[in-house]
Amino acid sequence: MAVARVRISANFGRNLEAMRLFLEENDAAQAFPRLLDALFERLIPNIKAHPGLGRDLLARAPGSAEGGFIHQRVGKLLADGELREYILEDYLVLYAVTGSQITLLAIKHHRQLSFDLPRFWS
Question: Which DSSP symbol is given to 60?
């Protein structure tokens, strides 16, 4: 497979800003530049070369009725693609793979709340 193209969604950009504020509020502002380095020096090059590196999020069975509904909806939106999650240090990154394009959808620190999957496609 050729090297994929990576794009950053608007939501991912908003998540990064929220992450910066979250880290500042938790007396860990020095962690934000390290996060950016990890994203641009490790994560992006790794998934460009190996898009299937992250775990397939839709391969896991949902644990609730609401989760099942979201699982179906996201599955339909990504009929020709994959939704993957990648653990990068203390962060969880969601990204979509469609053909030769990778879209970074969201990033959260493990101490933050869950992802809002339906909002990514609204």
Answer: S
- For the record, the structure tokens of 14 come out as 């908003």
Tokens standing for 41?
A: 């020096």
Residue ranges of domains in the chain:
5-112
Strand-pair partners of 96: 83, 103
Cα 63 to its chain centre, rounded Å, is 20
Contacts of 61 (CB under 8 A, 6+ apart): none
pTM metric for this prediction: 0.78
pLDDT in tens, 43-70: 999 999 999 899 988 777 767 766 665 6
For 62-112, the DSSP string reads PSSHHHHHHHHHHHHHTTTEEEEEEEETTEEEEEEEETTEEEEEEEEETTS
- Residue 85, SS3 per DSSP: strand
CATH of domain 5-112: 3.30.2310.20
Residue 103, classed as helix, strand or coil, is strand
Distance, CA of 15 to CA of 106 (rounded, Å):
6
